[in-house]
Specification:
InterPro entries: UPF0047_YjbQ-like, YjbQ-like_sf. Pfam families: YjbQ. Helices cover 23% and strands 38% of the residues.
Length: 140
């Protein structure tokens, strides 16, 4: 069994949904050594999240942002946690809805994603800063 792990920093991006599949693969080239295995990507933050979805049409990512902005609005007077601004608590809620990690199968040294799938960084803050990911891959 081979096990590889790498922590990476993603540069700050604007609020929205951003494809990061290439950055993940570039940061852990040892994935090519795994014939059959798994890769977990974990985000070390509570106001951003990860998901897998459409990698071709950028309007899908814009529609994701539109949907989550409507589903979890800012400036709700019922929120008690607003220390860092009106996007603070909504960001935590959105991150919990989407999750902090994704698991991707590895087959013959490559991610076994579907043809139209990619990994998204879901940035829920207006100014979230750099984001840290822990990437762990294992297999035979």
């Amino acid at each position: 069994m081979k096990i590889f792990q790498q922590q990476i920093q993603l540069r700050q991006v604007r609020r929205g949904f951003h494809l990061i599949t290439a950055e993940i693969l570039q940061s852990l080239p040892q994935i090519a050594e795994i014939k059959m295995g798994m890769c977990q990507v974990f985000i070390q933050h509570t106001s951003a999240s990860l998901t897998v979805n459409e990698n071709a049409d950028p309007t899908v990512r814009k529609d994701f942002e539109m949907y989550f902005s409507k589903a979890v609005p800012e400036n709700d007077s019922d929120y008690m946690h607003d220390d860092e601004g009106p996007d603070d608590m909504p960001a935590h809620l959105k991150a919990s809805m989407l999750g902090s990690s994704v698991m991707i199968p590895i087959s013959n040294g490559r991610f076994a994603l579907g043809i139209w799938q990619g990994i998204y960084l879901c940035e829920h803050r207006n100014y979230g800063g750099n984001r840290s990911l822990m990437i762990t891959a294992w297999g035979e």
